[in-house]
UniProtKB/TrEMBL annotation:
Residues 12-39, 40-67, 68-95 form the C2H2-type domain. The keyword Membrane does not apply. One of its GO terms (cellular component) is nucleus. One of its GO terms (molecular function) is zinc ion binding. SUPFAM superfamilies: beta-beta-alpha zinc fingers. InterPro entries: Znf_C2H2_sf, Znf_C2H2_type. Gene3D superfamilies: Classic Zinc Finger. Keywords: Metal-binding, Nucleus, Repeat, Zinc, Zinc-finger. This is Zinc finger protein 2-like. It is found in: Nucleus.
Length: 95
């Protein structure tokens, strides 16, 4: 399976939109976009997610965790994507 990352082989195809994946688990997660399945639920607020990693990131909002810090001004963020957007403010880059 590791070699597929180098060969770009993607033997797992979605039967709805024909998108292909190197790993079967990636196909399973993708198919949730079509079915609307969100098997991971937050015990605090009930919000549901398609991936466990998205639930884990969400849980940081309840815990007040902000592990991503700007190395320019020190502002901290809950999500890495929010930090990336913030950094564009310092560099004046457009998203």
């Amino acid at each position: 399976m590791h070699q597929r990352a180098h060969t770009e082989e993607k033997p797992y195809s979605c039967n709805v939109c024909d998108k292909s994946f190197a790993r079967s688990n990636s196909l399973v997660v993708h198919q949730r976009a079509h079915t609307g399945e969100k098997p991971y639920q937050c015990d605090n607020c009930g919000k549901t997610f398609t991936q466990s990693s998205h639930l884990m990131a969400h849980l940081r909002t309840h815990a007040g965790e902000k592990p991503y810090s700007c190395n320019i001004c020190g502002t901290s963020f809950t999500h890495s994507e929010t930090l990336k957007i913030h950094l564009q403010m310092h560099t004046k880059e457009k998203p």
